[in-house]
């Protein structure tokens, strides 16, 4: 089911909604986000740590968790079957779409909402803030609410690499959500040690261009991306790639995968992957 | 012999197993994940190497008379391997086994002509434990007639580890042309990990241990304390609670603990992507290699051990009711 945006006012009057702070800072990660959450948060919200609910074996941040870990986190959130879920972040609209995307792809049986403009917009609306106290810890899942489907909406490095070997007419379009400067290697990557540039043949569609007034807009420039063909989105670490995926789907794209490792993985010198500038 | 294309005898076919690239795990990690195909040994498992090394070296030391009896307490592949080597070398074989072991396992060992001695189960601390019973049996036989019995003692007989140092390690090194970044496997006796692992560590390969739930080594290597996490595992032949003589002096560079859900995901996945059917320990080993690959990042070459074939575990690993009772993933074709 698609993700809908709620205004702060709309969220403030919803009864019985699971509200999640899914903040991740590029500098500071989720540790800094948790600290800020305990200082100020939307009343009744809980903190969902996307670095904890992740695959523990990667050195890369927030790689998609095996279902069982996700099921434990969902149980720890005390989500009740079919309870609506609204996700926000402290930045505005950055990491919250990534969690919303994950909830949608895992087919959690609930309406999934994003708070337009996140915490800044809640605050600007003059709505109350409280110190956050609920940090979600994994807990034993209820077997009736757990499922065992495989999660297929993400691509790994080998799958992205395979796309490069297919002719341009038939391969998936690789769409990069990073800024133009990072895309062409003229701006440094925020994470140390990565090479500059982009995946050969990929198209730049900066995430900032698909956001307007704290939510997805429909009139961003597609830069030649064909919505009727398969798409793989990528970015710095897989966060805005998920947001871009949601924005493209809202605009009618049907086959959108997210390259989970994104540039943190592809740009690693040890990966020995091809790069264009 | 130069130019000879056949193996001289059954035991000459032990070892020199192929390294197989595992496509599913390799794609998942962006690494080259290779499995050493120990299920292709004539006895069907990696234990063939331990059995051969233990018996060969005892012979070389003059400890074995012709017609001697090989004695061991084991329920699994070691019993089968010892029975096979004994037969090929003209020795007798007595295997002491807990009577609670499955009929399949008892039959598999008896199939090779070993004499099976069943005893009631007892904890390791109790002298009635099957391992101690097997030791005493060998001692008694040697008292009557010195050199008439060998207690194989796979856990603390370092001929086990030495065999892997001499064969498994070099085979892996040469098989990857020295372009090897990681080696990882689980521990039962510790022979494979410490033997092959120390050979490879000498060549700067990163060596890891993957522990199933309930074993104590993960905690030992990470926190310094032999401590089980209290959960259980359906894997057989791996999971150790003490530092065996084979493990002494060896320290892995990397340690992880993986649950049975991950082991089963990999066992099922390998059948789907690679057509490869492994037992639980092989599945856990490959899961460990995947975790190591994720940690090291793409572009690395990692080797693990495919201990034995899944057919040896049909009644558990590939039994729908059993898997359901343990809340484990089930292959879709069962």
Give a structural overview.
The complex is a heterodimer of chains A (277) and B (334). Chain A is 26% helix and 14% strand. The mean pLDDT of chain A is 93. Chain A has helices spanning 8-13, 29-39, 67-76, 96-105, 118-124, 157-164, 180-183, 239-250, 262-266, and strands at 4-6, 18-21, 46-47, 85-88, 112-115, 134-135, 154-155, 173-176, 203-204, 211-212, 215-216, 231-234, 256-259. In chain A, the strands form three sheets. In chain A, strands 1-5-4-2-3-6 form a six-stranded parallel sheet. Chain A folds into two domains: 4-145, Oxidized Rhodanese, domain 1 (3-Layer(aba) Sandwich), CATH 3.40.250.10; 154-271, Oxidized Rhodanese, domain 1. Chain B is of the alpha/beta class and 334 residues long. Chain B has two domains: 10-41 and 168-325, Rossmann fold (3-Layer(aba) Sandwich), CATH 3.40.50; 47-151, Rossmann fold (3-Layer(aba) Sandwich). Chain B is globular, with a radius of gyration of 19 Å. The model of chain B has no long low-confidence stretch (mean pLDDT 94). Classes of the chains: A alpha/beta (277), B alpha/beta (334). Chains A and B meet through α6 of A and α1, α9 and α10 of B.
Spatial strand arrangement across the major sheet of chain B: 1-2-10-7-8-9
Rg of chain A (CA only): 18 Å
Residue-averaged pLDDT of chain B: 94
Query: Helix/strand/pairing class of chain B, anyone?
Result: alpha/beta
Structural class, from secondary structure content of chain A?
Answer: alpha/beta
Helix-strand topology string of chain B: EHEHEHEHEHEHEHEHEHHEH
